[in-house]
Amino acid sequence: MAKAEFETPELTEFIEVPKLVEGTMEHITCFVAKPEHQEALGFPGEKVENWKEVAIDKMGDLLSRYRSFQVFLDSCVKCGACTDKCHYYLGTKDPKNMPVGRQDLLRKVYRRYFTFAGKYFPKLVGATDLTEEVIDDWYSYFHQCSQCRRCSVFCPYGIDTAEISMAAREILDSIGVGQKYCNEIIGKVHKIGNNLGLPGPAIEDTLEGLEEDVWEETDVAVKYPLDVKGVDILLVTPSADFFAEPHVDGLIGYGKVFHEAGVSWTLSTKASEAGNFGMFIGSYENMRRVSLRIREAALELGVKRIVFGECGHAWRIAYSFLNTLAGPFDFLDPDYPVPQHICEFTLNEIEQGTLEFDKSENDDMSITFHDSCNVARASRMGDKPGGQFEIPRKVIKAVVNNYHDMEWDTIHERTFCCGGGGGLLTDDLMEVRVKGAKPRMSAFKNVMEEKGVTHLAAICAICKSQFTKVFPYYGMDMFQIVSVHQLVSNAIVMNRKTPPEEAPGYGEDDDDE
Amino acid sequence: MAIEANGKTFETDEEGYLTNLADWEPAVAEAMAAEDDLPLNDEHWEIINFLREYYEEYQIAPAVRVLTKAVGKKLGKEKGNSKYLYALFPYGPGKQACRFAGLPKPTGCI
User: What residue ranges define each of the domains in chain B, with the CATH number in brackets?
Assistant: First the structure.
């Protein structure tokens, strides 16, 4: 497995709009899902014989189900406002990575089969037949879109390329041509309960290890409970929080915050995944199946509140769709947001004065915050507009002394994607990921050089893993990415002491002495 | 895809991971490492053996923190961190070491 051969883009002080070069990324493809991955999700195992008919029928079905889809396909006036807004275009120069170029891959087929002009005068309106080549183009370029929705911020008609990209992937799945990365993972959630495929005993073993580590570090017996009934809060967090770094440092932080806040909480094996890749492939049915696990877990455990950990697209689904997908949540305590983000929870405790911090514990770092797309542009947090930008920053500023934002046109709703979102966080798309990270890397490098920033903090598992991988391509260190609750964890003062018998392993070593 | 080791052919998936975990033998790890230009020493083998033992018990690769802790206990605290593991396996302990150990590739947001 040699390192993929491609050139890492050079970082520039300002974001330069490149001259377009056709076809620079047409060689990109990603592994196709195997029959067992497809069938577990209710899709045909292999490309069906009458794929053309099925694909056009599916497009018609989506047009009838989602009015937005048809409006997006009809309303583009080719004004060009989106052309220089996509990080993949900026990093690859390929015109099919311009949002309008990407949309047109689908739009030209829509026009051919669903509009009067396209049926009778296809050449006049840029309508084309659905061919094998078109399908190959869809597979390549709709897997070079992270569904980050930055282009839609700048589109005067509000056309959302993410929805077009989701629709394209759903059509591809319906003819049996799915993506291995997403579909294998969704299958693992249906079968085991999380993206990683961590069985309950492995989660339990990992959490016991964390309890020992925190005990060693603080002399306080912080619990990381699993499947405990009758507690107040169910924490739903991405399974990467159990598995990877720096994600796990965030999970350690959530536990310390809950401990100091004096609330009872639990994780769940059934709902051991906040992420929901059903959204990435545009499949309502799969998104719903994944979401229902959270409802079932909350009911079985008898909790009063649901809190989500640091996961970008999970928060979009939690905030915007969960009630429709798996509601009503009338069994939860109406005095709290349903659901609540961990940053909201922590900020609330900070404002009530229940948490004490020693900010100097983070003095070896200077922090900037990366707004994750799905939090920034597809959800909100708290009860005020812009809360999704302010709340994480307030949490960070409460626990660190050194904080600087990146350039204004690369944060908040104009934030640049990390380059790995929307189902692209796979090794077979490394070239797309590295090149697409260019705008974010430029802004980060600038704030490092101008303000002395050393670390990038994020609240999304995908962003964290993506930065770990792409930093080295740009001459940075993979450990420059941190979890927001890792910073909280470093600075929090543990005031609620615990009796010795609560310590991990208490009494087990008695015979050894 | 496939890899040759010990005079035999072992089937792998498109990413180079062994298709059948039970087929694994040390020669497979050696052959994979040779393809990556990474000669295996005792330190590598400590990790590979731990991964296989853990997988046998839990049916999944260990979390990074579980792995670093086990390494720290066995080889000394200064080695119980991911910097040490990345120095041993430049493509990542989770992915490269798992592949050498014959384990399936960990999936998800990692």
Answer: 2-35 (3.30.1420), 42-100 (1.10.10.370)
